[in-house]
Design a protein that fits this description.
The chain has one domain: Glutaredoxin. Helices cover about 45% and strands about 20% of the residues. It has about 130 residues and is of the alpha/beta class. It is globular. Strand 4 and strand 5 form a beta hairpin. It has a 5-stranded mixed β-sheet. GO terms for molecular function: protein-disulfide reductase activity. Pfam families: Thioredoxin. This is Thioredoxin. Keywords: Disulfide bond, Electron transport, Redox-active center, Transport.
Length: about 130
């Protein structure tokens, strides 16, 4: 499956319309981004059940800013509208495969509960 180009116009639709989305924040001038691109494309062909998307940070600075992207490439994984992974750097293929496997194995009910617990704790500290 080829990657989907994300823009501020289609971002919400693509991310909320799919349960598992990998997002590569990149720029054409970035050497490590160009190095990571074939690894990312290869993974998209092996994992056709997942959505692989790209955000060109030069063309979409609002999206990069919204996710506080400070270094590229940055890989983000969103499962069921929850960002479960975000890390800058060009990942080697075995590491990318491991990250995908770990993200697949997450119990999203447990993830949401942990987020809820953390929010409650933070709310209690602020009072």
């Amino acid at each position: 499956m080829s990657t989907v180009e994300l823009t501020k116009e289609n971002f919400d639709q693509v991310v909320s319309g799919n349960d598992f989305v990998l997002i590569d924040f990149w720029a054409s001038w970035c050497g490590p981004c160009r190095q990571f691109a074939p690894v990312y494309e290869g993974a998209s062909e092996r994992h056709e059940d997942l959505v692989f998307a790209k955000v060109d940070t030069e063309a979409q600075p609002e999206l990069a800013a919204a996710f506080d992207i400070r270094s590229i490439p940055t890989l983000m994984i969103v499962r069921e509208n929850v960002a479960v992974f975000s890390q800058p750097g060009a990942l080697p293929e075995p590491v990318l495969e491991d990250v995908i496997g770990q993200a697949r194995g997450l119990d999203m009910d447990e993830v949401r509960k942990a987020i809820e617990d953390e929010q409650q704790q933070n709310g209690a500290r602020q009072q």
